[in-house]
Amino acid sequence: MLWQPALPDHYNAMSDEDLAQAIAARRDQLGDILLILGHHYQQDDVIQHADLTGDSLKLSRFAAEEASKRGTKYIVFCGVHFMAETADLLTDEDVSVILPDLSAGCPMAEMADYNDVVEAWESIHAVMGNDWNGRVIPIAYVNSSAAVKAFVGESGGACCTSSNATEIFEWALAGGARPLENNEQIKVLFLPDQHLGRNTASSFGLITEVEEAAGRAPSDTAVWDPRQEGGGLREQQIRGATILLWAGHCTVHMRFRPEHVDQVRREYAETGGITVIVHPECRKEVVDRADDVGSTEYIISRIEQAEPGTNWAIGTEVHLVNRLAKRVANRGVSVRILGDCLCLCSTMYRINQQHLLWALDNLTEGTVVNRIEVPPGIRKLARLSLQRMIPARAATA
Length: 397
Ligand code: SF4
Fold this sequence. Notes:
The protein has 18 helices and 13 strands. It is of the alpha/beta class. The chain has three domains: 9-105 and 347-366, 3-Layer(aba) Sandwich (Rossmann fold), CATH 3.40.50.10800; 110-250, Rossmann fold (3-Layer(aba) Sandwich), CATH 3.40.50; 253-337, NadA-like (Rossmann fold). A five-stranded parallel beta sheet has the order 6-5-7-9-8, sandwiched between helices. Helix 8 (146-154) links the parallel strand 5 and strand 6 (158-160). The radius of gyration is 22 Å and the shape is globular. The two termini are 22 Å apart. Iron/sulfur cluster (SF4) is lined by residues 41, 80, 106-108, 143, 250-252, 317, 345, 347-348.
């Protein structure tokens, strides 16, 4: 996590209304050279100032398309660090991407450290040996650092989002960037989110450790834990696995438990029932019990199309769920969060009106604070991993 210096005292002394007015005034002053992007998981105080809201990839794509059309010079990304990096990768180098609070990192992305990834890569290849007729293809969820994305690009892999993970798995298992030759075997190293990887592997009919634990063995997946010697795996497990899952997770979506699904179904059993829809970063036991699973953009579209009189429980970040609940309440659609956990992305929550105003005040004085810039040495390879995502079909993260 990066260090964010404390703001001057007067920002913390301002009321929410005064902050909102001051931000609006700064936006007017800066005009089209400024673009403010707000991720779905941001608090309402921040979202109200965004030119566009969306998931990480939608926002970065929008930034790439709009920045040149509008003559934008500064993008203020109200999200977390890897999102600002992705926006920097997809926009021209003369556009500055700003993260209002540098300490807004993504715990999941930080679970895949570049050096650990390289070490895992070398260990897996050492186990497979020089005689192995096969390849390991890395797939990085967009929730990863630019350095990891660059490693993946250099190693013949691609990025994926939560909505196109299945297509990218298919692409990799078919050989990835080059066709399969001489019956070679493919292994996928999926990082950093083991849950998205496991849920996707399961959609291919692969047996995961969840089924293995329930007595269906052996598993086609194995979890590589970078904190343990040799990833905590026996050589036989590495050789046998088709999908190697990095031991990372989202600290928000991990809080949803299978019991939450059972509980909410009991609560609504006599009042018309409830549809449970969850994000694929939830653990597989939750996804298996839910009625539907999909990315944030997919969840939003399901709720927007919901029939009046229906009840929905959503397993994703609470700010998005609460906003959706408000948006559809007047149509008679009932939306609530799944479970009683406090499912809030606390790092995203670090972005507030105070930091946003501070960044804009500096811009109006000609100073760029908190610029997120991917080093030139890794920019090209990190972009390559993004470009391999089958752009026409990769809609959302
Ligand atoms: S919700 Fe999870 S994956 Fe998304 S930014 Fe927060 S910790 Fe990272």
